[in-house]
Amino acid sequence: MLAGAARATALVGLGVALVGLPRGAPAADFPQHSPARPVFVVEVTAVPAAAGSVEVAVSWQVPYRQLTFRREDDWYRARYDLTAVFEADGRQMGGDVWSRRIRLRSLEETLGAGEATGRRTLKLPARDCEVRVRMVDRVSHSSSEVKGKVRANYRRSQVALGDLRFVHYRDGAPARNPTHVLAQGESGHAVRFDLRPAAGLTGEVTISWRVRDPSRGTVSEGDTTLAVADLPPTFEFPLESERFTVGRHDLEVRLDGPGEESDRRTAHVTVRLSPNWFVARREEALEVFQIVAEGPEWDRLRNASEGEWARRVEEFWDRHDPSPRTAGNEYREEIQRRMEAAATMFVEPFRTPGWRTDRGRVMLRLGPPARRSHESGDFDRPPSELWEYDSPRRFFLFVDEQGTGEYWLRG
User: If DSSP states are collapsed to H, E and C, what string results for the chain?
Assistant: First the structure.
């Protein structure tokens, strides 16, 4: 018996998740999501080890619902292999393959929110390189692959600034967060990295960090200066997520050492909506419900008293849940993905977040278009976008009439 034949690849949201690269495309920074089943996310980091070498860690996550489970005796079993190959200048530097088996008690677990995780390390020469990571589902024989860059040449600075590692504290204990995804306003997120000063180095170093929102500029920053003798092996600073809006943010960490030496690391942070966003933010939630809810449903939500609000929100999601037996609600998750996609894709100067724009409102109601074409405009006509939907056939024309980056629905 094969479980989950009708499961959807729910991890890849439009314009939100970092999409894995097909073969032959330029390598990108980690973390990476695979573009095909099984959808998984992988993070590869390197820190200095012995002279002339680095310790490379490969961490991955794959949701149970992305794997194929076979019924064996009283268990549901899945198996997958993960292969990592490191190359520099067209030559293989190293690599490994790891096989994993998963055993679950029930069909519901295979379709739920659980995930398989793993982390393995290996030593490589201290050289910048590229890595290909491939996952193979041994039951269905499906596979997917991503490619990325690993910075491992630490000889360019007197103080080595290791790769950025995201963690999330729960009940006081840190857990790795290789996806670099956090919920809006969620506390306990932090960034870690290793520091390795050269032997005999003296003086001070300054560590500074900055988080930028593409539409609002810098939203969080900080710095500290430490004597080289007092440098901790691992440095950590919190992410002030209450200042972040939904969408993608850019993180930069800079280390300025003695003399003119400096080092820099960058990463992307994806901010998503928290599971209780619709309950906690009633006024904003009503803007969304006015778009996605039908007439009687909308009336029931907007007329709810404070005491009724949370219950009526849950009733709305329950009515639209296509798979009540699973742990999550696929309809709510889809609406949230559309909101996050709109917040990332439709950055306009006077209507934020992006789901308040005309394009965002159509995205919320109908989802991403089957085809989307853009005209940059010229002296005779303004920039415009044409969206096409199938089943039923629909067209939407958005026009930036003033050249301000605001696209209004015109047809």
Answer: CECCCCCCCCCCCCCCCCECCCCCCCCECCCEECCCCCCCEEEEEEEECCCCEEEEEEEEEEEHHHCCCEEECCEEEEEEEEEEEEEECCEEEEEEEEEEEEEECCHHHHHCCCEEEEEEEEEEECCCEEEEEEEEECCCCCEEEEEEEECCCCCCCCEEECCCEEEEEECCEEEECCCCEEECCCCCEEEEEEEEECCCCCCEEEEEEEEEECCCEEEEEEEEEEEHHHCCCEEEEECCHHHCCCEEEEEEEEEECCCCCEEEEEEEEEEECCCCHHHHCHHHHHHHHHHHCCHHHHHHHHCCCHHHHHHHHHHHHHHHCCCCCCCCCHHHHHHHHHHHHHHHHCCCCCCCCHHHCHHHHHHHHHCCCCEEEEECCCCCCCCEEEEEECCCCEEEEEECCCCCCCCEECC
